[in-house]
Amino acid sequence: MLSYTLRRINLFIITFVLLALVAFSLTHLGPGDALSHLVNTDGLGPGQIAALRAHYHLDDSLVVQFGYYLERIFSGDWGYSLSNGEAVLGVLMRTLPATLELIFSAMLVALVIGIPTGAFAAMYKRSATDYAVQGLAMVGYSIPIYWWALLLVLVFSLKLGWLPVSGRLSLVYEIPPKTGFLLVDIWLSKVPYRLEAMRDALAHLVMPTLVLATVPTAVVARLTRSSLREVLKKNYIRAARARGWSMWKVVRRHGLHNALVPVGRILGLQIAALLSGAIITESIFNWPGVGNYLINSIYSRDFPAIQGCLLLLSSFVILVSVLTDIIFTALDPLHRKRLHAEP
Amino acid sequence: MLVNRTLLLGLLGLLLGACSDGKSGLAHQGLVYCAEGSPETFNPQLVTSGTTVDATSNQLYDKLIDIDAKTGEVIPRLAVSWEMSPDGLRYSFQLRRGVQFHQTPYFTPSRDFDADDVIFSFRRQWDKNDPFHKVSGGEYPFFEAVGLGSLLHDIVRDNAHQVTFVLNRPDASFLANLATDYEVILSAEYGKQLLAQGLPGRIDTQPIGTGPFVFESYRKDSYIRYHAHPHYWDGKVAVNPLIFDITKRSSRRLAKLITGECDVTGLPLASEIGEIKKHPNLKLQSTPGLNVGFWAFNTERPPLNNPDVRHALALAIDKNTIMQAVFYGTGSAANTLLPESSWAYNDKIPPMKRDLDKARELMKKAGLQDGFNLDIWAMPVSRSYNPNARKMAELIQSDLAAIKVKVRIITYDWTNFRRRLAHGEHDSVLIGWSADNTDPDNFFSPTLSCAALAGGNNRANWCDPKFDTLLTKALLVQDRAQRKVYYQQAQAYLQEAMPVVPLAHGLRFSASQADVEGVTLRPFGGIGFAKARRTD
Predict the structure, then answer these.
(1) Min CA distance, A274 vs chain B (Å)?
(2) Does the complex come out with an ipTM higher than 0.90?
(3) A256-287: string of b/e by CB count within 10 Å (b at 16+)?
(4) How far, in Å, CA of B11 to CA of B352, rounded?
(5) In B, which residues are within 8 Å of A296 by CB distance?
(6) What is the H or E stretch that residue A48 is in?
(7) From the CB of residue A243, how many other CB atoms can be counted at a distance below 10 Å?
(8) Residue A70 pLDDT more than 50?
(9) Between A88 and which of A18, A96, A308, B396 could a Cys-Cys bridge form, CB atoms 3.0 to 4.6 Å apart?
């Protein structure tokens, strides 16, 4: 297991360097002077420009420049936004929790809705429930999420006026940031309007969560269904049934536990899809996360910000898949053996 | 499963709780204004942009005097009374007592507002040796454009509560110019503190004023937070906090207004007015705008330096279609730069109708019968004088095809757009002007005078001594009838020279929740929340 873990971590490091290379190349592949992609050169004199070129080592070879780029990345200097001069890493650290909060609540919804419905479908196979679940999962899987989001906005915000259309919390409330996770921060804060703010934050969370949860819910339901059906065919299940256990009891005691391991692994790998979904969802609902920041930075051609977002998001994806791999391999020794092609 | 079921129930409970009406407590006390863009600075002296004026002038600061929106008369603000010397060269202002500056984590005032603050605020713009003059770029576009720089001779402190402005020559628009949203009063004491700290630039980013709201925090393209000034001299402020929610897309502002996320929204699109009227919980406020949308030609560039070509272009466009397709009945076609409601309006100028034959004739006269290539810059933001410049540009593009002029439409983000305009990089531009006060001079001097050219605000890059002379003459007399003659001549002259084609005067709109009252929307200048409150 140790060697397996080390190999995965090694893979992560190599991939990270490759990603950094891609991000680095953005500076040089864009139109115009490389320096103008790093800092706002408007109104700077030749002396200042020369100093900045020296600071970024722009007159050295590309390999050396990349070395310095990596050094800056690791020392926490991710550059400064061209549009407002904010430190990119600071903005990322502020926006990442918002994205994670959204992804986490979408995952939660996906599990809470996906697992029971999938299990139902597996237990009552080829029944109306089964077909309904499969049908809905198919729709959920294939629905374009921006369209789905707009539909929800139209109904729940504009027609019924129940839910807000954008943002994470009404700007009227001022919550001191501690962890960056808004719900936690509201909980920890001592403001007199805590409950009011909590309600407002939850209302803001509903639609983005539903939209982002749609695809993973469908995936979880389908996976649970097929995985549980496989498990239900096993001999130990038949034995339990023969002992007179009800279907419910069998599923609860043995079925789900065994069926959910592959579901967990696939979900870990779904993180990339979830993140790209989050980028769309965030920009539709103006959710102040990394995805929204990325889209806005692309609009304003803010290269340091784009670089930072890309590097953060993609390394996050790799990190999560490596971690999922390690965790589920530890949980499932059979899988580890398969990797080594052992008998 | 049990865990799942509890979770599910818990979540449902939370969601239902979240869905219930949230209009109580703090949300009810505060007010959210959905603004269309980020301010460039927190000092309106530095800009002419309406977005910045909206976010700063009436919220953070006060002026010496103001103009009554209904009567057009000058009314007291920080100055309680004033006197003009018989020769029109000295204006003495009696200052209000007991006016307190904002107290914030970065500044605690030790004294009330007095004469030093007035002198500080004007000296900064006027005196090139003032330590604050060069801070934040050293440009004061309004101050320069209306020629206050050359008009002022001295500002004298008579005593702590009286200031006298000494002028080089009489100027009938002087009071009106002081009453604009750009001539706000800053704190001299704060300036001194910042100088001592070596951080003079903060005066424009961490503002201190005497206005109804105190600056709290700002995040570009996201929000501005203000809280009520607890010691505001002009009555208690009912709204606290005041939030500017910066929402660039108009459709999103409308959606937020409908869901109640915004209490008030600025600049609804002309096409959205109908939708707003459909909602019983919303109300629309409109006021005839003292503004003009125009098409300015860069008169320094050939062939646009030829008045015949400019006339030909003006004759080739169809204003009626533009009014219908762009304004949807929220504006009126402009005949001169001045709106008809102005006392100096020249009603003898015949309306310009589309006349392609005449346009072609003029083009031929200029040797351009085969047409030429023309760039039209369309501003990326919506203004009441031009709700949709892009669409307008497209209409003009198809109109001009009839005289073989090939149009390329160009646009940049707003900051970039204006910077490039100021550098004169354009052929022609669809833009306009919102007046800062009711004085007719405000339509001409800031937009087309030679001083405006130097200030970078003259979009036509046009500097004509004859026109400037007319404007100067009009300012030298106090008699309104005589001034009117000069302004009418100026309008006739503009019609002849055609550096800009006046297109439309737009209504100013703001939409709000039906229970919000007291938001002031003036024909000139920005929006104000000092008297805003909820009625229920």
Answers:
(1) 21
(2) no
(3) bebbbbbbbbbbbebbeebbebbbbbbbbbbb
(4) 65
(5) 221
(6) helix A46-55
(7) 9
(8) yes
(9) A308
Region A170-186 average pLDDT: 89
Q: For A253, left (φ over 0), alpha (ψ -120 to 50), or beta? A: alpha
Q: What is the mean pLDDT of chain B?
A: 88
In this predicted structure, the answer to whether residue A340 has a pLDDT above a threshold of 60 is no
Contacts of A173 (CB under 8 A, 6+ apart): A191, A193, A196, A197, A200, B26, B27
The pLDDT of residue B19:
42
The mean pLDDT of B210-220, rounded to a whole number, is: 93
- Interface contact flag, B27 A206, Cβ < 8 Å: no
Residues of B at the A interface, defined by Cβ within 8 angstroms: 1, 4, 7-8, 11, 14-15, 17-20, 22, 24-27, 30, 32, 220-223, 225, 241, 243, 245, 247, 252, 255-256, 258-261, 413
Residue type for position B307: P
Q: Region B202-212: what's the mean pLDDT?
A: 94
For B303-348, how does the pLDDT look when each residue is reduced to its tens digit (9 = 90+)? 899 999 999 999 999 998 998 888 887 888 899 999 887 888 888 8
**Share of residues in chain A with pLDDT > 70 (%):** 96
pLDDT tens profile A249-302: 887 777 777 778 777 777 777 788 888 899 999 999 999 999 999 998 988 888
Structure-derived torsion over alpha carbons of residues B440, B445, B448, B454, reported in degrees to the nearest 10: -170
Distance (Å, whole) CA B499 – CA B300: 10
Instruction: Please work out, in degrees rounded to the nearest 5, the angle formed at the alpha carbon of residue A89 by the alpha carbons of A86 and A90.
Output: 60
Q: Is A286 in Cβ contact with B252 (below 8 Å)?
A: yes
- A180-196 tens-digit pLDDT: 899 999 999 888 888 88
- For chain A, helix, strand, coil in percent to 5 are 75, 0, 25
Query: Cα(B264)–Cα(B273) distance, rounded to whole angstroms?
Result: 14
Chain A residue with the nearest C-alpha to that of B217 = A174
What's chain B's length in residues?
A: 536
- Helix H or strand E encompassing B152: strand B152-159
d(CA B122, CA B186): 9
Among partner residues B18, B20, B255, which is closest to A157 by beta-carbon distance? B255
Contacts of A286 in chain B (CB under 8 A): 247, 252
Q: Whole-angstrom Cα distance, residue A46 to residue A64?
A: 24
Closest residue to A164, CB basis, from B25, B243, B261: B261
Q: Which residue of A has its CA nearest to B248?
A: A286
**Token pair for A162:** 């129940």
Does pTM surpass 0.80? Answer: no
Please judge whether B32 and A170 are an interchain contact, meaning their C-beta atoms are less than 8 angstroms apart.
Answer: yes
pLDDT band, residue A155 (cuts 50/70/90): very high
Distance from C-alpha of A110 to C-alpha of A120, rounded to nearest angstrom: 15
CB atoms within 10 A of CB B450: 17
CB contact under 8 A, B241 and A172: yes
